[in-house]
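# step 3/5: fold
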Amino acid sequence: MRIRRPALLAGAAALLIHAVLVRGLLAIDAAPRWRDDRPPRLQALYVRTIEPQPQVLPEPPALPRPVAEPPVLRWLDLPALPELARRDEALAAPLEGMLARAPGDEPDGAGAAGAERDGEGEEDAEDDEDEERQTGRAVGQDGDEGSPGDAGDTADAADPRGHGRGDGHARGPGAVGARADADRFEWPPSTRLRYALVGHWRGPLEGRAQVEWLRAGDRYQVHLDIVIGAPFAPLITRQMSSDGRLAADGLRPERYDERTRVLWRAPVLQTVHVDGDRVWLAGGRVVARPPGLQDAVSQFVQLAWQFTREPWRLAPGRVVTLPLALPRRVGLWHYDVRDVETIDTPAGPVQALRLEPRVRARGGADLIPEVWYAPALQYLPVRILVRHDDESYVDLTIDRLPEQAAPAAPPPRLE
């Protein structure tokens, strides 16, 4: 009996597929077991969408105000002799009047003290006139000792905690109002953002992703879920989760989980624990916890919180710095704020500012994100570009309006 060639090829292909399936199942069975003890995921019911709101973008930082040089005295600046004579007569008049009075004319010497104050006032006024002629401006204006902005400049530039602008400029009354609004900041209810995914890794990639911010009282969770390939049979899935508490300085992560699953391979789970002033990394190493520490996904919400409270931090040209805990290390990350870009969203074009990391993607275990924050959409990230190296990346762009749960009901009033 003669076997046809197409049938032979089909049988060989079936055997090959069977061998691949068996190998994958054996690999999964032989993989070391890990206990999935991740915290239960909080649930939320989304009832509304976030529409873009008109928003004034922060202005770029101005150049530092030049420091006034000390005036140079020239012979033309010296007062003329008649002016000096008039000044001497003015200073001598109160003194002669004081000497001419009897000691008992003014009670408790009040007249003498008043004459002395009058003489000092006239002398100060004339000194101010001299300084005005020498410097070309009135005393008390910008650059002088009595300027109300100097105290703010000094405080901002010298504040090591980063609460000031740090660029040598006073914030003025408007910034005082912004600070008051920041002090009244309320964390938003649970929010979900959905993204379309494109990218490249040994070929073109497509998929879906979502960022979900969940809140229950003072507890929070942030989840970044990425699916590459068809939803019913994804090639790669990655779930990145942050769990912690809300504090006065923003998010306080307590645990970070990163679960990666590649087709035909066992899932890989990496966990970072934060307890007090110590951090347990995925490899078992323990390091000190720096103040303000964030993890790979909590940073997105932490930065949005900072920009909402203090929009000047997102001005182009500034540098945003925060300590970051990754699965294998803890380090200080720096983001440069770039110029405004336009991102196409379901609600139309939206202006956003890009945060570009100074760390370059070199193909290691760390994924380097660039994030675009949109002030018109509550400073939410409308685009996230994650690089693995110069050629491998995934690009997430928001493809529907953000969804938000109903605000939490206020506590009942006690009568």
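# step 4/5: annotate
The mean pLDDT is 74.
# step 5/5: archive (pending)
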